[in-house]
């Protein structure tokens, strides 16, 4: 065991590391407990057709109603669930819940479009994910066209051959795929040729910068043009203002998601706001 010259720093650093890993273990156990105690809930955020303002689909976004900490953000616990491997059981719960909810809505006669489920990188790369999805779909009577998966470009290209394999099999069944947080992955665009994505979701950071006359507008314009020539759908994420909406309409963006219309909301609220039965 090596010692720091001062003899102090070492122990300090060491105890900090312990603190960190202790905290991780605490959160890990807390997530496990939370799953058992049914503290997780799916919220849903509409995807809105920019032309007629109709609902085109819903993105499922997980919420943790923690008994002591209140509502905990997925940005806080998804990374820990990933690191600890708990993402597999949490992911299973998410898949189950989203498919159950969607089947229920279809049976009730609601037409909200497809449900988009986020797959985190580890969850996506788990070799059992395909079997799990197929099993869930066979147990429910839900048609595959009502399901979409969102994955980030980084996750998709990290093992492109595996991704192609998985995507090919699932898209053959009618399941759709969207690229989440497009433009933030610093990756080459060649995967757009090789992988069967249907939709590009332009990351909020680009939408934040599309004021009139800005350079940001040109980037978004370019992404939309590219998506159109590739015959892909394009969604703008994180639309908050009327100005952004108007610009995106001018740029002929297909769909938007954002607080301008709705934040993610519970299932019963979706029914209340968008539940005109067709
Ligand atoms: P994401 O999939 O890119 O989801 C978009 C995030 O932006 C959501 O945050 C949403 O609430 C937020 N958002 C939507 N519109 C606006 C807006 O107009 N303004 C602002 N400021 N934010 C907006 P959320 O729900 O906190 O989720 C954060 C991330 O956590 C997600 O990013 C996704 O990567 C992950 N996540 C959430 N739910 C799940 C899940 O069920 N499974 C997995 N694997 N990851 C999830
Ligand atoms: Mg998403
Ligand atoms: Mg996103
Ligand atoms: Mg994100």
Automatic annotation (TrEMBL):
Residues 24-278 form the EAL domain. Coiled coil: none annotated. This is EAL domain-containing protein. It comes from Anaeromonas frigoriresistens.
